[in-house]
């Protein structure tokens, strides 16, 4: 097997499709094709994957007379960031997607949020548990990037303390959900420390952006529309607006 081949792992019942992104000391470095996961494996554990890959985004109703909320999406993975932008475009969401290494996100939050008026902030990338989380469920050092995600949420809440003024969606695979929510995220991963699909944060952000400011977004309904179902959140106001003017309808951002 060689770089960029698609594979699965026999020891995990071939549940996730990976791409080989590196080979070091007889270990194959793998990146989830659809899930925000980095792993390594021996050659013996890998199985080539040659089937056709199709991602089905859940249907979200689009009204051309409604202006959706504006999204700032910060992603610690450049490939996933590009896929996120494609998904936002399909949902007709006004989104700015930025690639930034996870450890650099907290220090960049102030300047990025001050560049424009955003309604929704997505902070994601890669994360994983270094140890058995059942032994240290609250220790952020147990996670690869949960500390960085929490710090970024804290910085954003210094500018926007109201949970409905800026909706924050944060986390990646196996992230410390409780820490993210308690520090100000509206939606986060992962309550069960499971892997999330790379498009799950985008789906949540799009639903919030397309929901009227007069309505609350049901966390249960939102999570049921995600691909992995491994996220959670709190009741949150939508960000879309309709402006009526005579016989015409004009959309305006929040």
Q: Taking Cα atoms only, what radius of gyration do you get, to the nearest Å?
A: 19 Å
- Large-scale geometry: globular
Q: How many domain units?
A: 2
Q: Which runs of at least 5 residues are low in confidence (pLDDT < 50)? A: none
| Average pLDDT reading | 92
CATH architecture of the largest domain: 3-Layer(aba) Sandwich
Helix and strand content put the structural class at: alpha/beta
Fraction in beta strands: 15-25%
Tally of helical segments: 6
Q: What strand line-up does the widest sheet have?
A: 7-6-8-9-10-12
- Quaternary structure classification: single chain
Q: What's the total count of β strands?
A: 15
Helix content: 10-25%
SSE topology string:
EEEEEEHEHEHEHEHEHEEEE
What are its keywords?
Rossmann fold, six-stranded mixed beta sheet, globular, 6 helices, 24% strand, 2 domains, alpha/beta, five-stranded antiparallel beta sheet, 254 residues
Tell me what the structure shows:
The chain folds into 2 domains: 6-48; 71-237, 3-Layer(aba) Sandwich (Rossmann fold). The model has no long low-confidence stretch (mean pLDDT 92). The longest helix is centred in the middle third of the chain and has 14 residues, at 146-159. α2 packs parallel to α3 (146-159). The chain has helices at residues 78-90, 105-114, 146-159, 177-182, 200-210, 219-225, and strands at residues 6-9, 18-24, 27-32, 38-41, 46-48, 71-75, 95-99, 120-124, 167-170, 187-189, 216-217, 231-233, 236-237, 242-245, 248-251. It is an alpha/beta fold. The strands form 4 sheets. It has a 6-stranded mixed sheet, sandwiched between helices. It has a 5-stranded antiparallel sheet with strand order 4-3-2-1-5, with no helix packed on it. 24% of the residues lie in helices and 24% in strands.
């Amino acid at each position: 097997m060689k770089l960029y081949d698609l594979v699965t792992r026999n020891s995990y019942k071939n549940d996730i499709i990976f791409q080989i992104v590196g080979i070091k000391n007889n270990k194959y470095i793998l990146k989830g094709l659809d899930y925000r996961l980095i792993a390594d494996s021996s050659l013996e554990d890998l199985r080539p994957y040659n089937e056709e890959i199709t991602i089905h985004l859940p249907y979200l109703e689009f009204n051309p007379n409604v202006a959706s909320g504006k999204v700032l999406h910060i992603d610690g993975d450049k490939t996933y960031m590009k896929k996120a932008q494609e998904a936002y475009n399909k949902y007709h969401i006004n989104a700015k997607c930025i690639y930034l290494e996870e450890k650099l996100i907290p220090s960049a939050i102030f300047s990025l949020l001050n560049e424009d008026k955003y309604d929704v902030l997505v902070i994601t990338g890669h994360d994983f548990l270094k140890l058995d989380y059942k032994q240290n469920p609250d220790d952020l050092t147990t996670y690869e990037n949960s500390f960085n995600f929490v710090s970024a949420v804290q910085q954003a809440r210094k500018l926007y303390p109201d949970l409905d003024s800026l909706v924050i969606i944060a986390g990646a695979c196996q992230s410390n959900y409780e820490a993210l929510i308690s520090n100000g995220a509206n939606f986060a991963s992962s309550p069960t420390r499971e892997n999330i699909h790379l498009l799950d944060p985008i789906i949540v952000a799009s639903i919030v952006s397309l929901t009227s400011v007069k309505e609350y977004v049901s966390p249960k309904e939102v999570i049921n529309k995600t691909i992995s179902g491994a996220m959670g959140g709190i009741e949150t106001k939508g960000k879309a607006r309709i402006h009526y003017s005579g016989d015409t309808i004009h959309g305006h951002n929040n």
